Amino acid sequence: MTTLSAQPRFLRSITLDRANKFVSTDFYSDINLYSKLYSKRSSEAVELSVYSVPNLKRIPFEKATKQSFHPTSTGTSYGPSWSTHWFKLKITVPKDWAGEHVELIWDSSSEAMIWSTDGIPRQGLTGDRGNDRRVEYTLLKKAKGGEVIDLWVEMACNGMFGTGKNSLINPPEDNRTFYLSQVELAIPNHAAWKLFYDMQVITGMANELPNETARGQEALYALNQVIDTYDRDDLEASLKKCLQISHEFLSKKAAPGAHRVTAVGNCHIDTAWLWPYAETRRKTARSWSTQLRLMEDYPEYIFVCSQAQQLEWLAHDYPKLFQEIKEASKKGQFQVIGSTWVEMDCNLPSGEALCRQFLYGQRYYEKNFGARCKIFWLPDTFGYSAQLPQIVKQAGAQYFFTQKLSWNNINKFPNTTFTWVGLDGTKILTHMAPCETYTAQADVGDLVRSIRNNRDLAFSNQSLLPYGNGDGGGGPQRAMLERLRRMKDVKAKDLQEWKGELYFELHRGTYTSQAATKRYNRKLEFLLRDVEIVTTLCMNLGRDYAYPKADLDLLWKDLLLNQFHDVLPGSAIELANIDARAIYKNIETKAKRILEESLRHLYQSKSSGDGSGDSFIAFNSLGWDRSEIIEIPAQTGDNLQQYSADKNTGYVRGMEQRCSYSFIDSFEPPRLNANDFATSQGHELILDNDFIIAKFNQQGHLISLYDKHETRELIPNGQPGNQLKLYEDVPLYWEAWDVEMYHLNTGKPAGSGKARIGEVGPLRATIIVEHRLTDHSTASQTIVLTAASPRLEFHMEADWHENRKLLKVEFTWDIISDFATYDSQFGVIQRPTTYNTSQDYAKFEVCGHKFADLSEHGYGVALLNDCKFGYSCHGNVMRLSLLRSPKAPDLNCDMGHHEFAFAVLPHKGTFHESNVVRQSYQFNVPIVVQSIAKNLLKEHKPISYFEIEGAKNVVLDTIKRAEDSDHIIIRLHEAFGGRAQFKLKSFLNVQSVVRCNILEDDGEPIEFVKSERASGWIVLHAFEILTLKLKVK
Ligand SMILES: [Zn+2]
Questions:
Q1: What is the model's pLDDT at position 257?
Q2: Measured in angstroms, how far is the CA atom of residue 93 from the centroid of ligand 1?
Q3: How far does the centroid of ligand 1 lie from the alpha carbon of residue 505, in Å?
Q4: How many Å apart are CA 537 and CA 660, to the nearest integer?
């Protein structure tokens, strides 16, 4: 008689579910494999005492360990959020544990760090349940039994992702407590751990490989077999059999020629985000000491680390740990990469600031780790400037790595391994990790995605897998390294190219959130520019002058720090934003002081004692002549053509030479136009100068803008400009980060305005508009037209108290153009004004720096700004985003007082023929007015220190002292996208000139004719950045 087999069918879904339960921490965790990971445990072995640091202070080890500690035990809770508690651990290893591997298990439901008694951080710990849980610390690889060991643990009352209420990005909760749930010694069961890791990989394969493949089916079969074989009543023998099954399955090799995935450990530590900078300093020690421990056990393990600023903090706070890291770096296991000072935002910083990120980063790596970085590593930044390929190459790096565009919410980016072609044509090999994350878990899914999402397999059969927990730090887990060991088995042709910016189709709100941060950044970038120019001149012209190199380095590094990709974009918590503003305030105060002192040094023969003067000089740091109306403090006895209403300020017309100064007495106040030029006619308020006539209605709307020279009206009938509009601003999830496309449907006029005439001329005329935006918010506009130019300025103050509303200003022009031109780093970008394709409409809100321009044949108009970045130009409508009001992660984002300005600049010709670039600089770089003692003024005539002869499209941006010598560095760029041929002229006694790169390495010499004080002809191609090093006597 035949008997049927007892074997039941095995079904995929049920088997997978069964495998998950077999290793689960939540289900059957008293009997499953998870429950057998430790063979012995002892909580009595650890004696605990604690010292709680008052006032949320973070104190160093030396200080903490001198405090008085009192006994405590598990089961207690510690708080509030952000507080620190130090624990003294006295560990007595049980006598009968001789010969065993002993671990300390610590779970305080928070972040914590283990310290040795000699004050070296040994390892970070992360409690609670998440993916980033790390609670084990190897105490002894082989115990003697009975030994007594002292350790310290520094417990930080925050999780890996801060202290947000319920959801990740919610504002932090101030009063959280963290529960010390587990402190014990334990002996791991190595066989159980091995099987645990095997099961993770096999389950991953069963999950991720297609069911119809043999390998997928075999994985499923192996899972079932292992769990059938597992016997908790005969554990050791059954584990042996289980491991035979799993090894047999895992030892089958991949086919030759399979895709090659290179896995590197990394640990993305946001320099500030859901925690302040001070916590980041500790996160680096926790995360990196942990990696050193893993390297001890896994010699094949390579970890990459990317932000120079974090290493500098670590060297300062944890010098012994820093030495250990340097040792590991010599062995090649701990590799520094990245090239920049921090992982910065790449939309908002100026071109010069991007250069400085590399200058400070590369110099740091070279000095401390012996070499510059070849890789520009920036996995988490919200879009990538088209000038980056050129800047990266000029800063000594060759490759670019990212992945962020995988978050695009409209179009899939078409490439994985490709050549990125920058604005000027510079090419750089770029890789966007196809696993689409920088926090990969190194599981089967990550490997499968590395192939499935790889869009360039035809060109390159390789990809990078950056794995390790991140954002809040942490880095790779032991489990990830174990999984990789099990998955070990797995040539470039002409690559596809992508030209231009890597526009990120998400996080478009980061051009506007945290208005104060953005304003400081813009203003201080230009302030440091002026400071460097004047101090460099002092160094060359003044006597007994020491260039304040150390001070400037500190100011620059702080500015660069705040350009981190969650700070400047405005996506950090309030604590971090308060820190950032304090840093900015300090930069501003110090930079202004240096500027004032150095200007006086440059122009006064000796100190006037109290520092005040009885007259003024005006300094123009820009490389071209400018004519502007300057404000000076009114003084008794002066006889100026116009004063402000309160008589505190007088107006004079300054005719400024390029990169030079004027003495205020030499101004010939021209009687330009005897008539006042602000008037009202009926219901209209009119500003009228030699260039334009601007008419406003009673609400302050611009109802007519007429160009007198071109006899041309710019406002289409019935579509007035200067419309303030409010939009509903409710994105899908990432509040501070995103504005979504649908907000454009919700624009409504923002309340009512009431206009009146302020100043009437003859040098400066104004219209004042008081706006009641809503029941909660008000704004005022001072609309300014001066006698000097057609630039119509709107200076605004706002008192802003909204909830998820977005304020924009809108202008509609009588111009037809399918493209708008936006200012960017050292160049401009054209983007469509249409919504034809998905690539077009994905750019419904874009980043522009000092201006956006809309031009047709023969004529155009630009909308300039002094601290805003979010533009949306559609058809002939130009909008500038002014203020947002997201509630997460900073509940108080942008609430309160604001100041900002924008301006309308009509111009003859297209953008390329216009003076928009220069005007946008002038709007952002005011002429510096400095009081000076007239009798002490030095005897030198106003003369231009530097000028560009022969090419209007070249901008002289930077003048600074060389990093390592008293040479002068100047940086110029071609600004419009065409060829330039020019001579550099200088009043200074220039001896020689060489080309150099951003890192200031010497290159080819350039001819300089001393008798003419001019260089030979220099040619720049479109958007080229040129750095020159000048030797001056
Ligand atoms: Zn990040």
A1: 65
A2: 41
A3: 17
A4: 10
Asked whether residue 1 is assigned to any structural domain, the reply reads no
- Residue 691 belongs to some domain of the structure: yes
423 and 532 belong to one structural domain: no
At 515-562, the pLDDT tens digits run 999 999 999 999 999 999 999 999 998 778 999 999 999 999 999 999
Rounded distance, CA 632 to CA 615, Å? 10
409, 738 contact by CB (below 8 A): no
Q: How far is the CA of 927 from the centre of ligand 1 (A)?
A: 38
Q: Which residues are tagged catalytic?
A: 380
What would the pLDDT profile of 997-1028 be if each residue is shown by its tens digit? 999 999 999 999 999 999 999 999 999 999 99
DSSP letter for each residue of 550-587: HHHHHHHHHHHHTTBTTTTTT-S-HHHHHHHHHHHHHH
pLDDT one-digit tens code per residue, 349-393: 999 999 999 999 999 999 999 999 999 999 999 999 999 999 999
Predicted pLDDT of residue 489: 52
Domain termination residue (choose one: 936, 959, 981) = 936
pLDDT at 130: 79
Range of the domain at 685: 678-924
What span, in angstroms and rounded, lies between the C-alpha atoms of 476 and 563?
Answer: 27
Say if residue 179 is in the same domain as residue 155: yes
In a domain, 159, yes or no: yes
Same-domain status, 393 and 528:
no
The 10s digit of each residue's pLDDT in 934-944 is 888 876 677 88
pLDDT higher than threshold 70 for residue 254: no
Q: What is the 8 CA–ligand 1 centroid distance (Å)?
A: 50
Same domain, 222 and 275: no
Model pTM above 0.90: yes
396 CA → ligand 1 middle, Å: 24
Q: What is the pLDDT of residues 955-999, one digit of tens each?
A: 999 999 999 999 999 999 999 999 999 999 999 999 999 999 999
Neighbours of ion ligand 1 (CB under 5 A): 270, 380
Q: Give the end-to-end CA distance of the chain in Å, rounded to a whole number.
A: 111
> 487 with 573, same domain?
no
pLDDT at 491 (0 to 100): 46
Same domain, 867 and 1000: no
> Same structural domain for residues 600 and 741?
no
Domain count, the chain: 7
Instruction: Measure the CA–CA gap between 193 and 188, rounded to whole angstroms.
Output: 8
Give CA 846 to chain center in angstroms: 16
What CATH number has the domain bearing residue 295?
A: 3.20.110.10
Domain-located, residue 740: yes
Q: Residue 361, Cβ neighbours under 10 Å: how many?
A: 29
Q: How far is the CA of 376 from the centre of ligand 1 (A)?
A: 15
What value does the mean pLDDT take over residues 621-648?
85
Shared domain for 457 and 597, answered yes or no, is: no
